[in-house]
Amino acid sequence: MAYAPPSGPTHRHGDSWQSSGQSRFNANGYAPAGVSEKIGDIFGSDRKGSLPMYKDKPYQYPSGRRKMPWFRRKRVIASVFLSVAGLSWWFGILSPLSFLTGGSETMVSKKSKSSWNLFGSGRVPDWDNRAEKVREAFRVSFADYEKHAWGDDEYHPVAKNGKKMVPNGLGWIIVDALDTMMLMNLTTELEHSRQWIHNNLTYDQDHDVSTFETTIRMLGGLLSAHYLSSSFPGVYAPVNDGLSDDMYVEKATDLADRLLGAFDTESGVPLASVNLHTMKGIPSHADAGASSTAEATSVQLEMKYLAKLTGETQYWDRAEHVMKVVDDNDMPDGLLPIFIYADQGAFRGNNIRLGSRGDSYYEYLIKQYLQTSQQEPVYNSMWNESMAGIKKHLITYSRPSNFTILAERPNGLDNAISPKMDHLVCFMPGTIALATTGGVSVAQARKQGTWTAEHEENIQIAEELMKTCWGMYTTTPTSLAGEITYFNMHDPPLMYEQFTSDNRPKSPRNFDRLPNLPGVDSRPIGTDDYIIKPNDAHNLQRPETVESLFYMWRITGDVKYREWGWTMFEAFMKHTAVLDGSGYSSISSVNIVPPPLKDNMESFWLAETLKYFYLLFSSNDILPLTDVVFNTEAHPFPRFQLGKLFKTGWERKARDADGKLVQDTQKHEGVPAVLDGMGPQKIETIHLTETRAVATSTLADGEMTAMTTAIGAYTAPAESTMLAP
């Protein structure tokens, strides 16, 4: 596991997790009553003010909540019942006339077309009110943290305490949640947070932190707060606290300068950790000192946006150089091992996956292309190559329902496939959809002259993977997904590229329950496909599935993605709420009802999960996908033009028709006369020294030969492999 500060926040790309041992059960094995009642009417109503609140009432919250005397409650119930009966009679639902007419098909037809009826069947959901429910869940969570652990970097909502990861705290939870507060118009919470940042936040602390996590959460949080406050003045939680408008950028610049120390390696690939005071990078304490590939390649959006804001090119150059080093390794089909040595710039091992330690490399390829308004096609090329590799090597199908699996190759592309999907992989459906349309709707994209059969194919893959990720939720007793899911797989595996669009395996059209079997209750679709092992059954409040639901809703316009999101939100509210209703925690098992609590609230619960729920249920006019890119911690940055200061400072090495690397045979002084005359043969090795070059080649008939030429005082790398076009 890549290095993270002791007792620090949960590493986003970690592989395994420990339960805190906290349990919700009483002596009889049941959770005490209370929490369901406290949040209960969130599930049965779209009325405002359903969630419990700490201290202050939210805006438009009902003024009084004291219980009525029992006799008044009975009168109210009776009045409601009589009203319902009267209206039912009037509309013919319970009227004796309905028996006389025999429930005519005409009447049924008219009722079925109605968008609303007395009992809610067919009623159009009030999505604004559902967004408000999410807003209240954020307020509940944040208020509990404010009361018991303000300024701490960890929070334990059951024990009601927190912990700082560095002596003075980094505001891990506060800074990560800034833009969520702004989007939700939570001015009071935002002002309190800004005061803490101004008075307490300092990065000059003698402590090691994760380079990646600090970049995506802290640097990303500060930059997105600057973006929302400066680009939308008076729109998102406007404040008048007298603090400088430049506070966010000043803090971000100081932090970035310290993080750059991690990039001081021979290859330029950043080390896993950095000391904030000394600004010295620190190798991972595990994995033979290698950095995580995803971590090294998922700091570019943040550094590039900061460079654009400040005009300081070093942020851009250092982050961008990493992409060249990675790409120069020429990994087959654009699929990268999950570890890279920072000193050498070379990969360690051959474990290929899009889950932990691999995920956001692929995410940041397409997002770098979009961030600079599609002016850096090198990243689009890399994305397309990786997408083709995913189809070729990683997509297979479950048994018996044929759900699409984005699997792993733990021992390299030429060895066995593993039908395992981390929950982290569920960022991919949304990312594929975003890459396919560029952020516009599918309907708009199809009208453009550039839409192809491949675009249509990729949208279908996104939809199928989205269904697979949603099945991780529908097949558990809690309706929440485990950290890792395995699948029953065909033997031999059915691979995506074995089929065409006409004959690929089809998954079920919906998630209706399987028919009852003799003596057996009905079971959810996918019960025989999905496998969650006991050690993988925890849920850490992760955002990846709702993130993809948000993208899929925005891009396809299919309301089912919103409905799935609402069902998921209800499950979080029901099963992750602490017993006093004052907050929410990760849980130890999605297969136990009620689930044992892990007593930890991750910062991404506030920064990502609740934000994506809120955006999913809110107007599409908020942060259009054509205007922004979200970093891997859900912090929005604007798309921008490269301008005069910035450019892509590198080019991909030439590749042949099969995508294989073709080394650049640059003509050094004294070398061309000999090498250019070697004809259409394959140059196997060229060894360069200070005085001569020795080229070993294969002639057309396969005979080996060696050629030598003087090159004067030219100094070059010791050896390189070269393939003639």
Automatic annotation (TrEMBL):
EC number of the protein: 3.2.1.-
Cofactor names: Ca(2+)
Domain of life, source organism: Eukaryota
EC primary class: hydrolase
GO molecular function: calcium ion binding; mannosyl-oligosaccharide 1,2-alpha-mannosidase activity
One GO location term (cellular component): endoplasmic reticulum
Coiled-coil residue windows: none
Keyword flag Transmembrane: yes
Binding positions (Ca(2+)): T632
Transmembrane feature ranges: 76-100
Reactions mediated catalytically: N(4)-(alpha-D-Man-(1->2)-alpha-D-Man-(1->2)-alpha-D-Man-(1->3)-[alpha-D-Man-(1->3)-[alpha-D-Man-(1->2)-alpha-D-Man-(1->6)]-alpha-D-Man-(1->6)]-beta-D-Man-(1->4)-beta-D-GlcNAc-(1->4)-beta-D-GlcNAc)-L-asparaginyl-[protein] (N-glucan mannose isomer 8A1,2,3B1,3) + 3 H2O = N(4)-(alpha-D-Man-(1->3)-[alpha-D-Man-(1->3)-[alpha-D-Man-(1->6)]-alpha-D-Man-(1->6)]-beta-D-Man-(1->4)-beta-D-GlcNAc-(1->4)-beta-D-GlcNAc)-L-asparaginyl-[protein] (N-glucan mannose isomer 5A1,2) + 3 beta-D-mannose; N(4)-(alpha-D-Man-(1->2)-alpha-D-Man-(1->2)-alpha-D-Man-(1->3)-[alpha-D-Man-(1->2)-alpha-D-Man-(1->3)-[alpha-D-Man-(1->2)-alpha-D-Man-(1->6)]-alpha-D-Man-(1->6)]-beta-D-Man-(1->4)-beta-D-GlcNAc-(1->4)-beta-D-GlcNAc)-L-asparaginyl-[protein] (N-glucan mannose isomer 9A1,2,3B1,2,3) + 4 H2O = N(4)-(alpha-D-Man-(1->3)-[alpha-D-Man-(1->3)-[alpha-D-Man-(1->6)]-alpha-D-Man-(1->6)]-beta-D-Man-(1->4)-beta-D-GlcNAc-(1->4)-beta-D-GlcNAc)-L-asparaginyl-[protein] (N-glucan mannose isomer 5A1,2) + 4 beta-D-mannose
InterPro entries: 6hp_glycosidase-like_sf (IPR012341), Glyco_hydro_47 (IPR001382), Glycosyl_Hydrolase_47 (IPR050749), Seven-hairpin_glycosidases (IPR036026)
Disulphide bond pairs: C426-C469
Pathway where it operates: Protein modification; protein glycosylation
Record family assignment: Belongs to the glycosyl hydrolase 47 family.
Name the UniProt record assigns to this protein: alpha-1,2-Mannosidase
Organism this protein belongs to: Friedmanniomyces endolithicus
Encoding gene (name): MNS1_1
